[in-house]
Amino acid sequence: MKALQGVDGHVAWVEAERPTCDAGQVRIRVAAAGLNRADLLQMKGLYPPPPGASPYMGLECAGVVEEVGAGADWRMGDRVCALLASGAMAEEVVVDARHVLPVPEGLSLHEAAALPEVYATAWLNIFQLGAVKAGEKVLVHAGASGVGSAAIQLCKAFGNPVWVSVGSQDRLAYCQALGAAGGVVRNENLDELKAFGPFDVILDPVGASYGQMNLELLARDGRWVIIGLMGGRKVELDLAQVLAKRAQVTGSTLRNRTDEFKGELLRELVQQVWPLFGEGRLSPQLVDTYPVAFAEAAYAELASNQVSGKLVLVIDPGLA
């Protein structure tokens, strides 16, 4: 089979060994795979897969089950999407059966490929680690990203007013169309966020450059969940504010969680989130698809920071 390999900031569609399908696993014929910012780091050698995981690119995919290992609760021909630690961008993937989800009602395989990573990330960090309660205010930095798009929609669906920081007025309008109450453009004046706060939960993929500001924006007993370091890794903070606000600062990654943890997370998604797609309350926000032969161009678009929503690579155009 073939898989997408990242080397020195570039990608190549290369021959790869076909994995075996063991007990508790399923083999999926991949229709499409979603792009994520973590892929850009892996391409540069800055975010390698966990030990024992596939060396190839990709954290999420969708396709059709073509082999079922002993004890796996799936059937041949099931239309599914899946969360992987790596290797989703391949003609076939073998996945822990607990990390496989049904394609939500009414969605194509291309749309489903844009769901597992971003919705799992948003649900984990706002609703589980952030422990948001109905009515509490949420701030999402990089609100027009794939994770941001999912977070805004989830907050709206579960009764949490949400504000964003974004890179342009067009992206702010996009977030408001998804349900954000408002926000600011980051290269103008982030201090304007204070007019909307304080916030009970802040979802932060930026890190250091927003650090002190996040503390100032947090409500008492607020939760600041850091999921990325686009703005750097080192920051000086006023710890007196951490004490006075009883702030909780949490670092979070999903990729290196245990198989058991991911299985429970995805089970909760299927129960509480997946039905909302069929009801029209959530959307994959798929912006564009690229044939796998144009993977380099797809990643260049993602790296431009101009994408509002999700990009997907089409692996098998015969599946949709």
UniProtKB/TrEMBL annotation:
Transmembrane segments: none
InterPro entries associated with the record: ADH-like_C, ADH-like_N, ER, GroES-like_sf, NAD(P)-bd_dom_sf, Quinone_OxRdtase_PIG3
Residues annotated as domain Enoyl reductase (ER): 6-313
UniProt key word Oxidoreductase: yes
Keywords, sorted A to Z: NADP, Oxidoreductase
Molecular function GO labels: NADPH binding; oxidoreductase activity, acting on NAD(P)H
Keyword hit for Chloroplast: no
Database matches in Pfam families: ADH_N, ADH_zinc_N
Record's protein name: NAD(P)H-quinone oxidoreductase
Originating organism: Pseudomonas putida (Arthrobacter siderocapsulatus)
Lineage of the organism: Bacteria, Pseudomonadati, Pseudomonadota, Gammaproteobacteria, Pseudomonadales
